[in-house]
Amino acid sequence: ECYIQNTAREYAKIYAAEAEPLEGFGEVPEIIPIFLVHRPANNIPYATVEEELVGEFVKYSVRDGKEVNFLRRDSEAGQKCCTFQHWVYDKTNGSLLVTDLQGVGMKLTDVGIATLAKGYKGFKGNCSISFIEQFRALHQCNKYCEMLGLKPLRTTHQKQRKAAALKSKNLPNSSTVKKTVPKKAREPRGFFSSEH
């Protein structure tokens, strides 16, 4: 839990460094740190500790990407969380996605990370690869994605799929290709066939 959240926190710091200087971007979501505490005298010797978040707790993204969340789509914090996901996806060439973003305002906690099956630079997340696929299919860019210069995912993905479909459609199957030779080419000049 600590490893996942603190890894996501490092990505959030880099995202903040790129986004905060942009004119009009404003406050950037922050993933709060989580600490592992050893309590040898306790029945449960290990516990995690983090800052208490006071206020309305909102899920800005869900692990499977299927839930329609109006606070995510319509709020500034929700849009910036979606942009953060897009930014991480873009920076890792689609190999890693910070997901399950939730918290109070711009302070987030209990996040998840999805990676491709082989992981990303030796790191494996705690969420299924299907979350990456669903994000790619469902993400809708907003003004913050545009401010960061992020390209729409669906347009790129749809273009790649169309190109692949056209390519396979235009390539003839060797078993269906008929070789035709023009009639004049079949018989040499001056040769007459006769039936006897």
Automatic annotation (TrEMBL):
Keyword Transferase included in the entry's annotation: yes
EC number: 2.7.11.1
Subcellular locations according to the entry: Basolateral cell membrane
MF (Gene Ontology): ATP binding; protein serine/threonine kinase activity
Catalytic activity reported: L-seryl-[protein] + ATP = O-phospho-L-seryl-[protein] + ADP + H(+); L-threonyl-[protein] + ATP = O-phospho-L-threonyl-[protein] + ADP + H(+)
SMART domains per record: Alpha_kinase
Source species, domain of life: Eukaryota
Principal location: membrane
Chain intervals for the UniProt region annotation (Disordered): 159-196
Record-linked SUPFAM superfamilies: Protein kinase-like (PK-like)
UniProt keyword list: Cell membrane, Disulfide bond, Immunoglobulin domain, Kinase, Membrane, Repeat, Serine/threonine-protein kinase, Transferase
Enzyme superclass (EC): transferase
PANTHER family associated with the record: ALPHA-PROTEIN KINASE 2, ALPHA-PROTEIN KINASE 2-RELATED
Protein family according to the UniProt entry: Belongs to the protein kinase superfamily. Alpha-type protein kinase family. ALPK subfamily.
Name by which UniProt lists this protein: Alpha-protein kinase 2
The species this protein was found in: Urocolius indicus (Red-faced mousebird)
